[in-house]
């Protein structure tokens, strides 16, 4: 009976679209993969050197460390983020190191969500939030960011996608346990403003709701925008779990080191889940991340800081991609942060509405497959970041990743120039 209940909960989430699009990309020999969200440029030298020292230095780093985090890492996380959040963090009770931010998310959902609890998820959302809610026995409740009219249709920003305060408030009920926040947002790249965060904070406090704040792209903000952690707002530390990622922070997604920060009365439940599932994360990767953060703490705010240099480099790549995609008729939504560029394909939808695919398949999915096969460019359909009832309303966007080396962007340019030439005939 329990297995049948679990199967019903996950119905509709078992299909992983990532597998499908990666397979298509691999089948197209010269495709330029701008779909998956990872850098294909080298990490900074100091990160590689830190990992090399961890592997070749102290032989005890080949063994277990503390189950809830390697002490040098939990210490620097507490020190560094304590200042940013305005809290005195205890490395032993306020910090948990996990197998990537993905592991932090799963641990948080398992620890906090019980059977029948409602979890508010802001759309578009990182696609694991829904199945993780269901696996814990919860019920996802969705509220969509809506695009407000822009005076300049050629320069649309992710900031124009906003929450409707009345609609958001209507989603809170006596069963609401958690609200999931993602800023900067994947896939939009929206950086939530202080006013927007204050709205969320006010409703969470009013209804005694916990907040899981996924902030893996916190250092990747552009155009002078500022990332604000909701846990730093008055009254929110006590009810917020803040999740971070070494992979996104230092361009080392394969190291799979993440963390979660929060108050002891909540963190103790995450430690119980962690202790009885993962138990322990690789020691050497944790040691390397600790050294990286120690260096960045010393350089914080200086021009030589990686936290300054990486967003500068990515903003240039973002702007390059925007210009190139506009040349063939895409309408980019310029992201304020993150790895990703969402583009509007409405014009293509009106010009070629009958692309191959199943009748029920959202247009953006058919377009993405057509583009891979016919243009050699890989992107991800944005409808997969929405709940089923809302996918039809957001089926005219696709997502590109611009965290790529210059050679990859040049290969993209060549594909787009060929496409542009074809449009003239």
From TrEMBL:
Catalytic activity, EC: 2.6.1.64, 2.6.1.7, 4.4.1.13
Pathway stated in the Swiss-Prot or TrEMBL entry: Amino-acid degradation; L-kynurenine degradation; kynurenate from L-kynurenine: step 1/2
UniProt-annotated location(s): Cytoplasm, Cytosol
A GO cellular-component term linked to this record: cytosol
Cofactor: pyridoxal 5'-phosphate
Record key words, sorted: Aminotransferase, Cytoplasm, Lyase, Pyridoxal phosphate, Transferase
Protein's UniProt keywords contain Protein biosynthesis: no
Keyword field contains Lyase: yes
Limits of the Aminotransferase class I/classII large domain: 30-410
Catalytic activity: an S-substituted L-cysteine + H2O = a thiol + pyruvate + NH4(+); L-kynurenine + 2-oxoglutarate = kynurenate + L-glutamate + H2O; 3-phenylpyruvate + L-glutamine = 2-oxoglutaramate + L-phenylalanine
UniProt GO BP: kynurenine metabolic process; response to bacterium
Entry-linked SUPFAM superfamilies: PLP-dependent transferases (SSF53383)
Superkingdom of the organism of origin: Eukaryota
Example GO molecular function: kynurenine-oxoglutarate transaminase activity
Complex and partners: Homodimer.
Family the UniProt entry places it in: Belongs to the class-I pyridoxal-phosphate-dependent aminotransferase family.
Function: Catalyzes the irreversible transamination of the L-tryptophan metabolite L-kynurenine to form kynurenic acid (KA), an intermediate in the tryptophan catabolic pathway which is also a broad spectrum antagonist of the three ionotropic excitatory amino acid receptors among others. Metabolizes the cysteine conjugates of certain halogenated alkenes and alkanes to form reactive metabolites. Catalyzes the beta-elimination of S-conjugates and Se-conjugates of L-(seleno)cysteine, resulting in the cleavage of the C-S or C-Se bond.
Name the UniProt record assigns to this protein: Kynurenine--oxoglutarate transaminase 1
Species assigned in the record: Octodon degus (Degu)
């Amino acid at each position: 009976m329990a297995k049948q209940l679990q199967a019903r909960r996950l119905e509709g989430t078992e299909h992983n679209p990532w597998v499908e699009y990666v397979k298509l990309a691999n089948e197209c020999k010269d495709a330029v993969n701008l779909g998956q969200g990872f850098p294909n440029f080298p990490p900074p030298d100091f990160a590689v050197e830190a990992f090399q020292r961890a592997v070749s230095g102290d032989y005890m780093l080949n063994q277990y460390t503390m189950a809830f985090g390697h002490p040098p890492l939990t210490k620097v996380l507490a020190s560094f983020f304590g200042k940013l959040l305005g809290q005195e963090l205890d490395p032993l009770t306020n910090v948990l190191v996990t197998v990537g931010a993905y592991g932090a998310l799963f641990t948080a959902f398992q620890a906090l969500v019980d059977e029948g609890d409602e979890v508010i998820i802001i759309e578009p959302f990182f696609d694991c939030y829904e199945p993780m809610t269901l696996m814990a026995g919860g019920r996802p409740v969705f509220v969509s960011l809506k695009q407000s009219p822009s005076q300049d249709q050629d320069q649309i920003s992710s900031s124009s996608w906003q929450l409707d305060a009345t609609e958001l408030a209507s989603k809170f009920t006596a069963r609401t346990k958690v609200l999931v926040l993602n800023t900067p947002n994947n896939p939009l790249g929206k950086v939530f403003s202080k006013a927007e965060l204050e709205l969320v904070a006010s409703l969470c406090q009013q209804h005694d709701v916990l907040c899981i704040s996924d902030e893996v792209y916190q250092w990747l903000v552009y155009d002078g925008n500022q990332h604000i952690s909701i846990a730093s707002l008055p009254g929110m530390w006590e009810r917020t779990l803040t999740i971070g990622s070494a992979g996104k922070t230092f361009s080392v997604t394969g190291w799979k080191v993440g963390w979660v920060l929060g108050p002891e009365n909540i963190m103790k439940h995450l430690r119980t889940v962690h202790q009885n599932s993962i138990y322990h994360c690789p020691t050497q990767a944790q040691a390397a991340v600790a050294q990286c953060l120690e260096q960045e703490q010393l350089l914080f705010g200086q021009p030589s800081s990686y936290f300054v240099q990486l967003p500068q480099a990515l903003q240039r790549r973002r702007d390059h991609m925007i210009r190139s995609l506009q040349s063939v008729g895409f309408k980019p939504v310029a992201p304020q942060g993150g790895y990703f560029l969402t583009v509007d394909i409405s014009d293509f939808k009106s010009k070629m509405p009958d692309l191959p695919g199943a009748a029920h398949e959202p247009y953006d999915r058919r377009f993405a497959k057509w583009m891979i096969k016919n243009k050699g460019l890989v992107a991800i359909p944005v409808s997969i970041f929405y709940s089923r009832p809302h996918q039809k309303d957001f089926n005219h966007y696709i997502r590109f990743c611009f965290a790529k080396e210059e050679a990859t962007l040049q290969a993209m340019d060549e594909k787009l120039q060929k496409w542009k030439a074809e449009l003239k005939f």
